[in-house]
Amino acid sequence: MGRTPLDAPARQQEVFAAVLGVLAEVGYARFNMDLVAGRARASKASLYQRWPSKARLITDALKANLPQLPQPDEGTFAEDVRQILLAWGEPMPFDTAGIFLGLLEGSRQDADLACLREEHIDRAYTEHLRVAVDRAKARGELPERLDADILITALISTFVLRSGEPGVIDGIVDGLLRPLTSAFRTK
Questions:
Q1: Which part of the chain engages DNA, per the record (predicted)?
Q2: Consecutive sets of 10 residues in the chain, 187 residues long: mean pLDDT of each?
Q3: How does DSSP assign the chain, residue by residue?
Q4: Which domains are present in the chain?
């Protein structure tokens, strides 16, 4: 009996799980098709035939495994962000921090990965934060002139770099966002 083709959904998910596992473990620089092929029990040639570069393979694996994130409306910016970060922190079958760090590393080295990441992955994570920032500006919690991109990058970076630390979400929300929004409201 022959192998299941790589485009079969269950088989593709096996390959994608191998991709994300390898990326989280070894990073982008050491990521290669040999490691994925061995873990996914697939031939390197069949991987290259379907995905001509590691950047495209990683992007497709990430797209197939994007979490369904809620768009909370808790009435305050801090609580909206808390709910978004809690959703990001939900147990995932993959090492999210390792994957994010591998993506950041790879994006500095590979322009194709950087473009694919921005186009397909970043939007999925930043969209909910952008809505929360826009709502906070409309409610007067944040100044109109605040650079949403910088704030969103700071929130994501802090979450990723400190994920796994106890109380990281409370630290971001209660130690950073609440003082920020209350300082703005008192002006």
A1: 32-51
A2: 76 95 96 97 94 96 84 94 86 78 92 92 88 95 94 90 86 93 74
A3: -PPPPTTSHHHHHHHHHHHHHHHHHHHHHH--HHHHHHHHT--HHHHHHH-SSHHHHHHHHHHHT---------SSHHHHHHHHHHHHTS--SS-HHHHHHHHHHHHHH-HHHHHHIIIIIIHHHHHHHHHHHHHHHHHTSS-TTS-HHHHHHHHHHHHHHHTTSTTHHHHHIIIIIHHHHHHHHT-
A4: 9-63 (1.10.10.60), 67-185 (1.10.357)
